[in-house]
Write a structure and sequence with these properties.
The chain is an alpha+beta fold. It is built from five helices and six strands; from the N terminus they run βαβαααββαββ.
Length: 202
């Protein structure tokens, strides 16, 4: 079945990194099966080009996550999406970390609270500048809130629980908690991070 495009896009490079992260956790054959089920056969052995053209549609991310849950069940699909998110964090940091200043030696030696104060808004700025994702960061004193007003993982989905498992996995590497999601009828997807402690909020 043809995917109805959302009209919102990530750059091809981010789509390529996402598919590579899925391949890393599922293997080539596993990813090919998911691509077939999602109606994205065009990406089998043919990942998006390594450029910043905005051509990887949000609907394709959503279709992949739906396919994961169809094939492995909600719990298994969630686990794989979170593992892919963790791989995505590492791969994305290698490719885009310099844009956020995270690749600088001076940044790596900063205390955690300073890294969050500088790094989180910088990451949101990258997504707002390079993609059609709308990211906002709010400093609430003891914690930061990172929200997505336009979330590819929730696009055209309605679920009982938050569906942003890729972002939850990616953000778990830096100790963020998923608070709510568009797929569960909230207006935004929200992640919360304690600014002082190197652990998730209870």
């Amino acid at each position: 079945m043809a995917i109805v495009k959302s009209g919102f896009y990530y750059p091809n490079k981010m789509g390529k990194i996402f598919l590579e992260a899925l391949e890393e956790v599922m293997g080539k054959n596993g990813l090919n099966a998911i691509l077939n089920l999602a109606g994205l056969e065009q990406y089998i052995d043919n990942y998006p080009p390594d450029n910043l053209n905005k051509e990887f549609d949000f609907a394709e991310i959503s279709a992949l996550l739906n396919a994961l849950e169809q094939m492995y069940g909600p719990r298994g699909g969630r686990g794989l999406a979170q593992r892919a998110g963790r791989a995505l964090f590492a791969n994305g940091l290698r490719n885009f970390g310099a844009l956020a200043g995270a690749g600088d030696l001076a940044f790596t030696v900063l205390p955690l609270s300073a890294k969050l104060k500088i790094g989180v808004p910088a990451i949101a700025k990258i997504f707002n500048g390079l993609t059609d994702q709308v990211s906002n960061v709010q400093d609430n004193g003891e914690y930061y809130t990172y929200t997505l007003e336009r979330c590819s993982m929730c696009h055209n989905r309605q679920t009982d629980k938050p569906a942003c498992h890729v972002a939850a996995g990616r953000n778990s590497r830096s100790r963020w908690n998923l608070a709510n999601a568009v797929a569960t009828t909230w207006d935004v997807c929200a992640f919360i991070r304690n600014r002082f402690l190197n652990r998730p909020l209870a």
